[in-house]
């Protein structure tokens, strides 16, 4: 199967540069900065800051809604027995 070349410039122009995505990215960056300020940079090095309740589902950047998890755990999705996403 031929490898598809990813057009990053086009992807940014159509998706990442939208006002909604800029707002979401700013919230994620603020959440990480908040955890780094409270726990220190070494606590989050090589890990992701996760929202227990996603921002898209009404979650906030409050300390009680943030946790530090491994990148693998944060970037994986639950799947059914047949491999489809839940």
Task: Summarize the structure in words.
This protein is an alpha+beta fold and 86 residues long. Helix content is 45%, strand content 12%. It has one domain (8-75). A two-stranded antiparallel sheet has the order 1-2.
Brief write-up:
By secondary structure, the chain is of the alpha+beta class.
Describe this protein with a few key phrases.
alpha+beta, two-stranded antiparallel ribbon, 2 strands, 12% strand
What is the element layout, followed by pairings?
Blueprint: H1 8-16, H2 19-39, H3 41-44, E1 47-51, E2 66-70, H4 71-75
Antiparallel strand pairs: 1-2
> CA-to-CA gap between the ends?
27 Å
Portion of residues in beta strands equals 5-15%
Q: On the 0-100 scale, what is the average pLDDT?
A: 89
Strand order of the biggest β-sheet: 1-2
Shape assignment: globular
């Amino acid at each position: 199967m031929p490898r598809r070349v990813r057009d990053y410039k086009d992807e940014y122009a159509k998706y990442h540069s939208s006002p909604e995505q800029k707002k979401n990215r700013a919230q994620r960056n603020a959440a990480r900065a908040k955890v780094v300020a409270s726990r220190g940079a070494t606590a989050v090095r090589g890990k992701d800051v996760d929202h227990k309740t996603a921002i898209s589902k009404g979650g906030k950047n409050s300390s009680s809604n943030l946790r530090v998890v491994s990148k693998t755990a944060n970037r994986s999705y639950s799947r059914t027995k047949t491999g489809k996403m839940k």
